[in-house]
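Ticket closed. Logging final result for Biogenesis of lysosome-related organelles complex 1 subunit 7.
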Amino acid sequence: MKPRSCLLSEAGCHFKGTAEELEEHSNDVQNHLKVIAESMAENRLNIKNLEMKVQESVSENMKLREQLQDLYPVLGTVKSLDRTVTTLLEKVKKLEIAEQTVEEMNETLIRLREYMQRVQPAVVQDHKSKSPQGTKSPEAKSPPRGLFGHNTSFEDHKPKHAAPPTDL
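Final structure:
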């Protein structure tokens, strides 16, 4: 025959036996009260521990909520700063293009000054001496080819970019 468990096994009684042994065991009220009392004490301790853990969790949850509330304004500030950085990067790119254009214009201006310094004496000489045919010196007409670089003219050195942006 298969052994049976005590009806108070859920409360902590570990007795197993035949039906006859189980009936005799069930009459031991004193022992069962002791098992139930021990089980209740253990359950109270478990409940107390669980209550403490729940309270700790609630407290931690409250702290996390407060921290989260403190982060919302920071998040807004970070988003605003991100937009500002993006705008500034766009302006820096425009400034870089403008700077490159100015540098190219300065290089062209330097070459033009050098050209003017070379041809000025010829132009002055040409105006001083009036030619009977009324012709001008060939140097005064336009810059010679190759002045601005190998086989290039002044036209080849016009700025490659649009005018500097005015919205900066």
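The chain has three helices and two strands. No further action required.
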